[in-house]
Amino acid sequence: MSKRVKQLPQERGSVLFDVVYEDGSRKSNRRVPMEILGGLDGDEPARLLIEEQDEAIAQKSGRPRSPIQELTRSAIKAPKLASEDRQSSGG
User: Fold this and answer.
1) Rounded to an integer, what distance in angstroms lies between the CA atom of residue 81 and that of residue 91?
2) DSSP-based three-state secondary structure for 21
3) How does pLDDT run across 65-79, given as a tens digit for each residue?
4) What is the pTM of this model?
5) pLDDT tens across 10-49, in order?
6) Nearest to 15 by CA among 38, 48, 5
7) d(Cα 71, Cα 54) in Å, to the nearest integer?
8) What is the DSSP string of 32-88?
């Protein structure tokens, strides 16, 4: 029986970003579709999408979101075997 390797989000068509806001707060692993990135705009479309998502969240929560100070791609972790997850979680 072969061991299954978990797919990374980048392999499924998404890129993860870490966002630092002007108020000092930070959100990690914000998912952005890969197809909107690249070209001459680079990662700028990701900033626009995350700002739109933040605006929708702010409207629903009634609390304004601080403007984005910095946007960087999340570090890519090495894939783990599915069996390693079960061993580390005790099951």
Assistant:
1) 14
2) strand
3) 889 999 999 987 766
4) 0.68
5) 456 888 999 999 999 999 999 999 888 877 788 899 999 9
6) 38
7) 13
8) EEGGGS-GGGTTHHHHHHHHHHHHHHHHHHT-PPPPEEEEEEPPPPPP-BHHHHHHH
Phi first, then psi: give them for residue 75, nearest 5 degrees. -65, 140
| CB burial string 43-80: b at 16+ within 10 A, e below | eebbbebbeeebeeeeeeeeeebeebeebeebeeeeee
- Phi first, then psi, for residue 67 (nearest 5°) are -65, 150
The domain limits of the chain are 35-75
Tokens matching residue 77:
């972790």
Contact between 22 and 39 (Cβ < 8 Å): no
Compute CA distances 51 → 30, 34, 37, whole Å.
11, 17, 15
Q: Which pair of tokens denotes residue 20?
A: 């630092």
